[in-house]
Design goal:
By secondary structure, the chain is mainly β. It has a domain at 262-318. 5% of the residues lie in helices and 15% in strands. It starts with a helix and ends with a strand.
Length: 318
Amino acid sequence: MSQITKILNIYDSDGTISDSTRNVEIENILNLNGGTVNITGSGSTAATSSQVWYNSSNAELARMLDSGGLAIGINSLTGGFAAAARFRADASVSADYTNTAVLDQTYANTSNNTNTSTTLTTRLYKTSTYNTSEMKAAFIQARNDGTGSMNYICGTESMLWSIGSATITSAFSTSARAQIQAGTITNFGGIDVSFQEVAGGTITNMIGVLVRTPTNVTGGTITNTYGVLVQDNTIGTNDYGFVSAGQASNGLGTTTPSANAILDLQSTTKAFKLPRMNVTEAGALTAEDSMMIYVTNTDATFPTIGAYCRENGAWVKH
């Protein structure tokens, strides 16, 4: 028996191979070259494996496939929802806060810099000239097949946690960026929200974006709180801050706007304020009937200060 096979504990005490399936032709598979262990598999596809790891109970833990893929907790890269080319990890857990995988990185820069530090990067490149339906650099799914109740389920949760005394200009738990250098894109944006109610079930509220009531449990100082903030967006031919397509009812100050109103404003402490401008600014408008403004000085068109409405091609004081 060679020294290598003794170290690897491939043989039983009587000198026979313990598992011929996983230790085929060991002397022909294992070679030492300059301190490097070269293990050659019996094929070049995912149908065969070059290495398989077992625990003391002979339960398989992981295997390296001859295609170059690593499977942990499963004996192949296929099956279930999707197939993997290089890595797949399957786990069945019953304890709370138990993860299939954890990536924990400490960033300890040694000098001031303007670099970016990331724990995980996923990239998807398309290099062919053939058409493709969809490309997704990452796909994350949370699936419930049980019947028990739960308070919350989500596909992705991102948490930002800052406990140091550093000064941070912008801090967001999620940042969505879209960049284009060439080509033609019809719809270009940061976040795409789709509703899919496939085969029944009861849904009370379908919500595209939910901004929850903020909490300030430690007594910190917050200057401005925005549910949604759209900064100056004036780079296109037509610039829109917010658009609601179709005839859906929109509400401010209410979660149940009138079904007969395109916009329902409700408040007992605040009023609706018209755009305020001087007569020069008002005269420069591309005016349309039903527009409303509040002018702050006077001229021949706007003889008194106050609210005006565009009616039949003219500004009418109200």
